[in-house]
Amino acid sequence: MIRPKVYIAKHFPKEVIQYMQEHCDCEEWEGEGEISRETLLSNISDKDGVILTSIKIDKEFLEYAPNLKVVSNMSVGYDNFDLEAMKSRNIIGTNTPGVLDNSVADLIFGLILSSARRIVECDKYVRQGKWKSQYDENYYGIDVYGKTIGIIGMGRIGEAIAKRAKFGFDMNVFYHNRSRKIEAEKNLGVKYSDLESLLKKSDFVVLMTPFTKETYRLMSVNEFNLMKKTAVFINASRGQTVDEKALIEALKTGEIYAAGLDVYEKEPIEANNELLKLNNVVVLPHLGSATWETRNDMARVSAENMVKALVGEIAPNIVSELKK
Ligand code: DGY
User: Which ligand 1 atom is at minimum distance from the Cα of 237?
Assistant: First the structure.
């Protein structure tokens, strides 16, 4: 029997590679850091499957891989899939939902707390030897406990954030979503809100919506203007869901208090990006799910998706738009 060929454009745990090798011939990216698109393209001409993160799967990519049948994304977001191009070649596309919810929700709270309590700024203040007296009002922050949080995008990660907000910080939780989440309303006591009211009443606005045509620059000048001047904005979805210029302006003019960001319009962020000059922003390098435990789980799930699809079983996590 001919064994399918798979390129793994990631660094995978040994046991996951072993599992894959029981079913396919695998090649793994062994270079430093992330693989470039060009390098990946030069490795896929004979591959039936590719496991990757964030590299665009478009017409050009598919032309480089005439045998390709399965793309397994090692991420929950799949805005890198050109769904039309993939449909026209009958490509199976999968993602890794579920296993990263808690890691991302933890990180969101890291961003909330560090933006509100100015933890990164205060760390620098101590290291720079500026800690001379006890009561430096210039470094006071704002409270999180008991405040109002508005979550835009109430999927699994949104619910994990809501749990922490409700049961850990006794917050008043509002959400905005394409559809009502009746179970979450019952179990977590979260309340549905239209976007405008959510923005007006929240002390913390967390954007968790997937990036689609509809959510492109969902947060722009008007939306930041609606937010309270004392409010904190958090984005760990995708950079394209925010008009970054409008965000920078809102932060500079005091239209909002602070922001905690894990994602940007252009990644990696460019050194001259104005966000990096502002003290009221905490910037992270898109690491929402980056813990050893979660990344290992994501590797395992993406490997299982690939193997199941290649051996002709129904892969568990085919993205909804590509389901037959
Ligand atoms: C995802 O999986 O889509 C997240 O962006 C990871 O951080």
Answer: 5
Q: State residue 57's pLDDT score.
A: 98
SS3 content of the chain, % helix, strand, coil (to 5): 40, 15, 45
What's the CA-to-centroid distance between 97 and ligand 1, angstroms? Answer: 9
Whole-model pTM?
A: 0.96
Provide the pLDDT for residue 1: 74
Same domain, 132 and 52: no
Candidate from 34, 78, 100 with most ligand 1 atoms within 8 A of CB, to mutate: 100
Regions of the chain short of the pLDDT cut 50: none
Q: Give the pLDDT score at 134.
A: 79
206 with 105, same domain? yes
Domain that holds residue 17: 5-98+292-322
Tell whether ligand 1 has an atom less than 6 A from the beta carbon of residue 49: no
Torsions phi, psi for 214 (to 5 deg): -70, -30
Q: Name residue 172's beta-bridge partners.
A: 148
- Number of structural domains (the chain) is 2
